[in-house]
Amino acid sequence: MSNALLDRDLILLNQTCQTVEEVLETIAAPMQAKQFAKETYADGLKEREQSFATGIPTEPFGVAIPHTDASYVLESKIGLLTLKEPVSFGVMGAENDQVDVKVVLLLGLADGSAHLKALQTIVERIQDAHFVKKLASVQEKNEALALLDASITKQLEGE
Amino acid sequence: MKKVLVACGGAVATSTVAANKVKAILKENNIQADVSQCRVSELGSKSQGADLIISTAKVDRDYGVPVVHGLPFISGVGLDKTKQEILDILK
């Protein structure tokens, strides 16, 4: 896989997590271990998630797109975590609503305008229920990488 | 010329996604409007003279301007209803 935004270690499939915090720690761990992000990255994600939740009530189940301030990120990456059993995330822009999330797309991007482009691309894609279903059910890292590259990161790198 | 504010909570990301879609809807329906973006925290100073606020984050104050929840622009779920709400307010 040649795409610089993707990394095999940031593809975490069929994870078992009980809480949002656990999800964020799990997906932040390889970002920190490989020095794509600062040691405080997981804290940054949790803080951001608390003040502005990132769960999106898409069909057939929710997608969360955790991200935090670009200053935490040293090298831009997009990660994927899929959950065996859904975890309840706060809904973006709603104080008390929750959404059952099975697909977590981490936006670990080192500059603001890259965040924006990635978010726009991802938002377009997750409105397609087939795509969300496919992401949730992917069983192999290579397949996940190919799917992300074809649908998301290729567009971002091409610009 | 109508004035539409698209607001979000944190950075400009989700409001930009929503604002682009709002602009497309208004164009499709030949509605002349000035669409601008801000943070929810800036609505107090920017909402004056606005015809509509579209927000991807929670708006808990009354600015005397109708508010439409913009999450469907991000999730795609319930988008037709949201479009109609916007058109009903601006037409």
From TrEMBL, chain B:
It comes from Shouchella clausii. This is PTS galactitol transporter subunit IIB. InterPro entries: PTS_EIIB-like_sf, PTS_EIIB_2, PTS_EIIB_2/3. Keywords: Transferase. GO terms for molecular function: protein-N(PI)-phosphohistidine-sugar phosphotransferase activity. Residues 2-91 form the PTS EIIB type-2 domain. The keyword Transferase applies. GO terms for biological process: phosphoenolpyruvate-dependent sugar phosphotransferase system. Transmembrane segments: none annotated. The keyword Secreted does not apply.
